[in-house]
């Protein structure tokens, strides 16, 4: 592969890694924001915030 094409491939790979890292950071902060927002709304509405796992949800919706 010519050096110019190889440099372009390396540059693209670095760019994609940086994009992936930024997206991961954003998704993490978005999850945290949504969790806090949900907890605040539940507190305002005086509703209990329950923690369910998938097995619990299957039992609830199966009934």
From TrEMBL:
Can you name this protein?
Uncharacterized protein
């Amino acid at each position: 592969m010519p050096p110019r094409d190889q440099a372009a491939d390396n540059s693209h790979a670095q760019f994609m890694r940086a994009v992936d890292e930024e997206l991961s950071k954003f998704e993490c902060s978005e999850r945290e924001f949504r969790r806090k927002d949900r907890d605040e709304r539940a507190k305002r509405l005086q509703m209990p915030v329950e923690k369910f796992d998938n097995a619990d949800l299957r039992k609830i919706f199966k009934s």
